Amino acid sequence: MGIDAYKLNEDETCKRFVLPALRVAGWSEKQIRPQYRINDGRLVPTRRRHKRGAALAADYVLEYVPDVPIAVVEAKRYRLSEENGVEQARRYARKLGLSFAYATNGRNIVEIDFSAEKPVIRPVERFPSPDELWARFLRDQGVRGTEAGEELMSAAYDYTLRNTDNTVKRPRYYQRVAITRALAALARDERRILLVLATGTGKTMLALQLVARLSKAPGAFGGRKPRVLYLADRNMLVDDPKDRYFLPVFGEDDVYKIGGGEAKRGRKIYFALYQSLEQGDAQSELFREYPPDYFDIVIVDECHRGSASSNSRWRKVLEHFEPAVQIGLTATPVRDGGKQTDTFEYFGNPVYSYSLRDGIEDGFLSPYRVRRVRLNVDVEGYLPEPGKKDVYGQVIPPDLYGPKEFERVMVILERTETAAHYLIDYLRKNAEDGRLGKTLVFCEDIEHAGRMRTALHNIASEEVNVLPDFVKRITSADLPHVGGSLEEFRKADSSQPVIAVTSRLLSTGVDLPAVRNVVLFRRIVSMPEFKQVIGRGTRLCPEIGKESFDIIDFVEATLLFEDRSFDGPPLRLLEETADEQGALVDVEDITPPAEEPDDYDGDVVAEPQAEYEEQDGGSFGLGGGDGDTVTDEDEIDRIQARGKRYRVSGVDVYKMGERRYQLADDGLTMRLVSIEQWVHNQVLELDLDPAQLRTQWARAKSRAALMEALREADIDVEELPEELGKPDVDPVDLLVSVAWEGLAVVSRDERLTWFRREHEEFMDSFGERAREVLEAMLVKFAEEGSPQLKVDTLKVPPFDSMGRVVDLAGRFGGARQAHEAIDELAARLLTVV
Fold it and tell me: Which of 315, 756, 800, 808 has the most other CB atoms within 10 Å of its CB?
């Protein structure tokens, strides 16, 4: 038995030793969840595709009651040490918010216990029984010994909702952890509970399941189901949860939206806007129609806004319902040392936090790239000559105007035009299957958004001719007329609008999974607001294959990524420069080094607390928030001193600069390098000499592998000629020249002339019909470069007019011969001249 056991693999070890040991301890088959999938695996974007990292899955998760994990078991094969599973068990337990984990090889068992003041790792003789571990779990959560607490912690989830493929919609692991923490806090009689989850991670699903489990624990509410008030400050934040989540689960008899000046009773779950509840004269507002103890639970969505400020007029709603347990949900809590706007001061520290970094690492949120586009006037400033008048004849006060003044005090019309040119060019270059990615543009204010909309509309005339609503401005000034456009923009399968231009309106409260590009053309100094804006792109959209998104930053707002209170580093950070037509002339890679994530205990930058005033009703209820909120004191002084806004035209605006950063030898700091130095270093990492590089490049298959390796090193080979300012030189010649300095560079035309002179005999060795294909290949090389020297190119013009790919390959005697001929053509064409 012993000799045979040492030959068992992990699965056999589990069947013969681990599972029997669990059953001896009293665990039933239903309480043991094998291969418990934790996350989906991080998405890693490539140029056109995405690959997903391995998903985390625990060998076993133990549940005392269904869907409430209380411990992890990590198994290793019999012949290995049980210690080999300790780190995995610890990691999975931490991820699942558990204090107990076990590592075993079928012979020995190690327990990892996080419940004590100091974590303990110790050998144990056996697995604990279900009752033993459940008691320890409750004690760890601080709810041991109360019937109501045990009832709350064991209440069941609801699985009424279905996904689009009709599978059961189940909460993700972090939502379960958040719910468990909230229920435990409620069982401990904590009256204010804060849950912080990144934008796009499903706070509504969390709220639904929390209420569902609370409704199945009547003992905690005097033998009845709890009455719940769901509060928010925008109609969409109320209507979407009500219609899409709560009504299908609880039904119309139990779900009601307060409005119309009427305070109905007799329901279990109420939805309301602050604006609706405060209707009426002072001291007789609608919310006072409900006694202070009427609601057992008040859920405050986006709790960093609205009532977050101690002097907000909406705070009195929460204060009126003070006897209720108040649960705050937010992605962006606000901390203000002055205590006027402080999410933590009101709700306390979060009982659970799930960051943007966590969501990206788990593969539940889109990773992103950053392009910083620097315009010359933003870098150098604008200094009008003495006596300069604006377009309305106003004399402009002499001063050096910079980004703080642009659009607020100084409007340079060409600045918006140049940005619009760059954006349309970028979208066209990155179109997939002829479709431009949906793009959300944030401007300084409503007027700026209008000018940007007009510029984009005019520049994208060819798109507008096909799609009249290609670009739309969506601000508070446009509501309710653009309600339909916003709904179409939200849809993954809608063809228009493609570009939505806003100011502050769409920064929060709107689910936009189809957005592929978030454009920042408005200065942002508030970290909570910045996170909300970035969150517009973080949702995955599998319907259209969206698994990452791009941030295009004209105003260096993404410098906030470097703040320690931001928790999601970009995959790649590029700083770009455009000419006066908005064309790309410069790219700088300034990706910072990766850091280990910190626990959620840092300061959070205070958010400007403009009241989001909104009347009850409206198609989307997104009103308010598009004003000129300014938080920088120096900026406020300058604007007030001016008292006017000046508009000028005829200014030379263009994109400028290109630099890249890479890790220094210490592995921590970044050092500035030229793009040539960057390419030099990355090519030498391939460990090839020039001849080997050319040889591998000549064959289509090995060339594709080289291009992918370079792409992973942030070098897009096909764009390299433009980036290095040598569009007439082939990529392989540039790679060789930059990596091995001093080697001569020749143009594609020179190569072609040389080839025709030296390799005429090679061309004559083919029949006329095959030679016709190779001649067309040479023309393709002259126009677009060596990456086109492959059989797949036979699918595109001018080859598609010659016949099908199989027919063209037949001219050479078959597919294999066609591959060999094209590879030989490339080898001769790209040899050293």
Answer: 808
